[in-house]
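Kindly inspect what follows.
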Amino acid sequence: MPVLVTTLDILTERAHLDPQVARAIGDAIENEMQRSSPVTETILDARVIELKSHLEGKIVELKGHLEGKIESCKADVVHWVFSALLGQLAVILGAVYFMLRTGR
């Protein structure tokens, strides 16, 4: 890819460089651009799509884990409520039994 004329114009007219120096700088910049691997919009789009699918998988995994934890907590709450009801029933029956025994 040859150095663009506009790049040479900028270096010679605005920076007041010698045309040979301007061409050398342009060639050096071009060489570095070819050596580097620029990130293009297509590459970024692919990375975003990959990241999105990875995050969606993690969300589904965490959702399943949380649903399991919630079910476990529900079972514990039902167990404790049932135990409390049985405890209260035992206290009430004991009080009624005590009143009937002492009331006669």
